[in-house]
Structure formats: C-alpha cells, structure tokens
Amino acid sequence: MSWIYLLKMNGPRHISFQQFQGFAKYYDMFMLRLVNYSAWVDYVIKIFNNYHYYPKSILDIACGTGIPSLIFAKKGYQVVGVDRSLEMLEVFRKKITGTNYNIQIVHADIRSFSVSEKLDAAVSLYDSINYLLTEDDLLACFRCVANSLKPNGIFAFDMNTIYCLENFWDNQETTRRIGEVYSIWRNSYDQANQISTLKLTVYTDNGLMFEEIHQERGYSETVLKNLLEKAGFTEINIYAHQTFLPSTESTLRIMVVGRLHQ
C-alpha cells in the first residue's frame, strides 16, 4: 500500500491518501463512463453457461464500490463482496442501505480473507488481480478463493496483460474532466519487474488536490495457470476479454477462468 506525502503550500489544499482512499468518492463518476459493467457481467454469466454451471451465489473479489456486485444482485444472485478499502466499501454500503438485495460486505485483504459459508462462484473485475505484485500474493489470493468456493465452483477474473502494461500504458498521460473533478493519469513501466505505476493526480473545484500511486503487475499465462493449479483449480481457460477466443501477443486484457477441483 503506497502513501504520498504532500507539502502544504499556498493554493489548493494538499492531502496524502492511500490507494482508493481519496479517489473512492469519485470512483463511480469516472468508471461508469469508462467501463460497460453490465456487458462485463453478462460476459461472466456466458462463461458460467459455457462451463454448464449455474451459480446462485457470487463472491466478488476486490468489490470496491460494488458496481458489479449490484448488477449481479439485481439479477437475483446472492453476493458477498470483499475489499480492503474502507472508503470504497463505505460508498458500497450507502448504495445498499434500505434495499433488500442479498449482499454481504466483508472488509478484508484479498490475500487473507474468509467467508461464513462457501459460495458457488467467484469473480474479480477490472484488473483488480493485477494489483497483486508478487506470485506469492497471487497464490495467497487464489487459495483464499478456493477455500471460499463449493466443489466445482467457478472462478473468473480479468487482467491487463504484460503487453498492455508495457506497450499501451507506458509513458501515457491522460487528462479527464468530469463534473467538479479534473484528473491527470500518468503511467510508467518497469520492464524488469513487469510493474506499471500510475500516478493519479486529482483537483476538485472546491480547492482540494491529492495524489495516489497505483501499481499493477502483468503475469504470463503459464504463471497464472500454474498458480491456479497449486490453489486447486482445474479446467483452466484463458480468453481474450469479452470473447471465447485465445489471447494473442497483442491482447490487452484477458479473462482467466478455472473450476475448483472436487
């Protein structure tokens, strides 16, 4: 977890924030314009169908503000969302206050969590798994997921590829203005460690300025398959995202799917 310490100076109020702490308030404002979450959830359901598997309960890993969780819940699924950001979960809780959705929220690190009862399937969407920066972290997460699933349960998650982080994100700077918020997204790539670093700078019209550092690591398909197998998953398939085709050298995002061994 990275911290940015900012000096006080004249002008905007500068504050230090953790990942998804300051940005949590504005996350939905940006992401709902960038990602068609409904289409992603429909894609996951098609994956379940391809496995001839029809879950009733879903574990949402790194659920954040709960955008996919709510879509699943509205479709009738029981949902358990896990995330370590209290600020993101607070946004999620406000969304479900006063509703009758079958949603449980768990505040925990995705490398070390447990659930009260095993679920039918697990998902993790929008490259959350890329935030795990070592193979040990990945394996720890995969084992927690395996321990949370019923036998034959399906685990589906997307990831940015090494190609994406190195060739599509590296040295990119993007500015976005939405409502009262102006943001600058600066990316760099460490080829030796296969880690992309995003420096997110946010300015608001009421005079607040903050920065967050986000890091993602890319992994080869061989590594992903080996770690999933170690955690107890079989029937592992990796697709170019939103398709059922194999990835290529220039695929930007993959969907990884495995079935928990009985």
How are the secondary structure elements laid out?
Blueprint: E1 13-16, H1 27-34, H2 37-50, E2 57-61, H3 67-74, E3 78-83, H4 86-96, E4 103-107, E5 119-124, H5 135-148, E6 149-160, H6 162-169, E7 173-178, E8 181-190, E9 195-204, E10 208-217, H7 221-231, E11 233-240, E12 253-260
Parallel strand pairs: 1-10, 2-3, 2-5, 3-4, 5-6
Antiparallel strand pairs: 6-12, 7-8, 8-9, 9-10, 11-12
What does the model show?
There is one protein chain. This protein has seven helices and twelve strands. Residues 1-17 have low confidence and may be disordered. It is 28% helix and 34% strand. It is globular and about 55 Å long. The two termini are 35 Å apart. β2 (57-61), α3 (67-74) and β3 (78-83) form a beta-alpha-beta unit. The chain is α/β, with parallel strands linked by helices. α2 (37-50) packs across α3 and α5 crosses α7. Strands 4-3-2-5-6-12-11 form a seven-stranded mixed β-sheet, sandwiched between helices. Strands 1-10-9-8-7 form a five-stranded mixed β-sheet.
